[in-house]
Design goal:
Rossmann fold, 2 domains, 5-stranded parallel sheet, two-stranded antiparallel ribbon
Length: 320
């Protein structure tokens, strides 16, 4: 048996306890002083842990949990018994409009989403259902519809498209440290910022542009949209694609070519295409953001989009 050198054993043990103590101190500091309810990375961590789950179906990827309530970005978020961001459950006697989309549709950082605002404008006959789920793409959203939402028999479907909704999302289970340690998230985000600053990692513009490089996945996604369109035609359900622009640099928009791709596809397949850029482009960009570090749609932007949809689709809604 190899004898244990007590001196080195206690030195090693002291180092391990010192490291553990340092980690606990940094974690406590992050939770007490850095977590102010508006830190984008911390709030995204809470969202992933408290409100989302990995789907059993790989085509869906991510689903919302049900009957959950939490404050994110200092906004109260409530998911109903169907996993939608609504304060109520579906009422079969009302006209039901389904909003599919990602975090822009979900209303990250907004108190009232364009779903809420549109419902108020349409009145008591309507329910506008917010099925937006953060970190999902169009492919996942359409598959989620067919697996989980189709049987609700919606009367109108709007697919809200954002610039990165053709990105191939790889869903993975996070490690224990990733899911539970704020200091890990904080340090990771700072390293990410440094890498971007020194051009060692793509900035937001380059990242969004590269999501259009995978032609095979783009075609798979367009085929899923076509499947949804065919379902709507067969069941006499109006179907609309609403484009939501990236909110940085609206005056010198970088993604016209990418927007034209989805618009052309919609027109060729007789799908109504709307572009919310029309209502947003004349506003100061930062006046539409949740915060300086978070260019998601804020309450003002959500209201503008609701007004735009109401104006463009009122005749269609009244015909239901």
């Amino acid at each position: 048996m190899i004898p244990i050198n007590k001196k080195y054993f206690f030195i090693t043990l002291s180092i391990l306890f010192s490291l553990l103590g340092a980690i606990l101190v940094m974690e406590s500091y992050a939770r007490i002083f850095l977590d102010d309810g508006k830190n984008l990375n911390f709030e995204m961590l809470k969202y992933a842990k408290k409100l989302k789950k990995i789907s059993k179906d790989k085509k869906i990827g991510i689903e919302h949990k049900k009957n959950k309530n939490i404050k994110l970005m200092n906004v109260n978020i409530k998911l109903n018994s169907q996993g939608f961001r609504n304060d109520y459950n579906l009422n079969q006697s009302k006209i039901k409009i389904l909003m599919l989309g990602d975090s822009m549709t979900f209303g990250w950082g907004a108190n009232k989403t364009f779903s809420n605002n549109l419902e108020e404008k349409l009145g008591d006959k309507f329910q506008v259902i917010n099925a937006g789920i953060g970190n999902t793409n169009t492919y996942m959203q359409v598959n989620n519809f067919f697996q989980n939402y189709k049987d609700y028999n919606f009367d109108f479907i709007i697919l809200n498209f954002f610039i990165n909704d053709l990105e191939k999302v790889r869903v993975k289970k996070g490690y224990f440290i990733e899911k539970n340690f704020y200091i890990y998230t904080f340090l990771k985000s700072k390293i990410h910022e440094i890498l971007i600053r020194f051009s060692l990692k793509d900035n937001w513009n380059e990242f969004y542009s590269k999501t259009f490089d995978d032609e095979k996945f783009i075609n798979k996604t367009l085929n899923e949209i076509l499947r949804l369109s065919e379902y709507c035609n067969k069941n006499n359900v109006p179907f609309v694609i609403n484009n939501i622009p990236e909110l940085r640099d609206l005056k010198n928009y970088q993604f016209e070519e990418e927007t034209n791709l989805i618009e052309k596809f919609a027109i060729e397949n007789n799908i109504i295409f709307l572009n919310s850029m029309e209502i947003l482009k004349n506003n100061d960009e930062e006046s539409l953001w949740v915060s300086a570090e978070d260019p998601h749609l804020n309450d003002k932007a959500h209201l503008l989009i609701a007004n735009f949809l109401y104006k463009e689709l009122l005749t269609d809604f009244n015909s239901l």
